[in-house]
Amino acid sequence: GAGVSQSPSNKVTEKGKDVELRCDPISGHTALYWYRQRLGQGLEFLIYFQGNSAPDKSGLPSDRFSAERTGESVSTLTIQRTQQEDSAVYLCASSLEGGGPGGELFFGEGSRLTVL
Amino acid sequence: AQSVTQLDSQVPVFEEAPVELRCNYSSSVSVYLFWYVQYPNQGLQLLLKYLSGSTLVESINGFEAEFNKSQTSFHLRKPSVHISDTAEYFCAVTLSTGGFKTIFGAGTRLFVKA
Residue A105, exposed/middle/buried by CB under 10 A (0-12, 13-18, 19+)? Predict the structure, then answer.
């Protein structure tokens, strides 16, 4: 597609349920990021995939969070046993060669997660 | 570890007044620097970037930012703002080595008043 696509755009779930958020990056982009944006706050880095390298998971807040990416295509962020503090907009971004020379990040519209 | 600090969470300003949004970073290696903007109800988009060369970079809508290595800053400025500049502005830093992870500041909400 022309841009980064995320689904679902909105997800309401009950505390304790698992959720899966999907990101379809721009074709050919080797780098993919997940960020979390809580209401009124900045972007919190979660995880970074770059080509075939091991992902940088240093931003994942707990072991309830995990993410996968198949090759240089779709990525899925999974949150197990959701808690109310997980409520946020989850943003996906992709870029050529990470953030290196010319490496502008292109963002999706985000998935808004509400945990009741 | 790298970090980005945006000192002002909110900046209210009158239309046609100048504005400066501050950004400081810390890193043990050289970095690439970016400003992203998020207009109301829209996704983030790149405003301008510094990769190398001239330390003063400009956007198409009149914003400019200057890389100051000694002060580790990358402040964003505009000499005369418009109502349409109302948005959230995020400073971002990417390390030049070690995987190019990009870290964002907490954001500055610019509110332009008539």
Answer: buried
C-alpha to C-alpha distance for B82 and B61, rounded to whole angstroms: 10
* DSSP H or E run through B103: strand B102-104
Q: Say how far apart CA A9 and CA A109 lie, in whole Å.
A: 8
Q: Which residues pair with B5 in a beta bridge?
A: B24
pLDDT, one tens digit per residue, over A27-45 is: 988 889 999 999 878 889 9
Per residue in B51-78, pLDDT tens?
888 889 989 889 999 999 899 999 999 9
CA distance B34 to A79: 30
Is there a contact between B102 and A99 if contact means CB atoms under 8 Å apart? Answer: yes
Testing the interface with B: which of A95, A105, A109, A111 to mutate, by most B Cβ within 10 A?
A105
The maximal CA–CA distance of chain A, rounded, in angstroms, is 42
CB contact under 8 A, A42 and B43: no
Contacts of A50 in chain B (CB under 8 A): 99-100
Of A35, A43, A97, the CB nearest to B100: A97
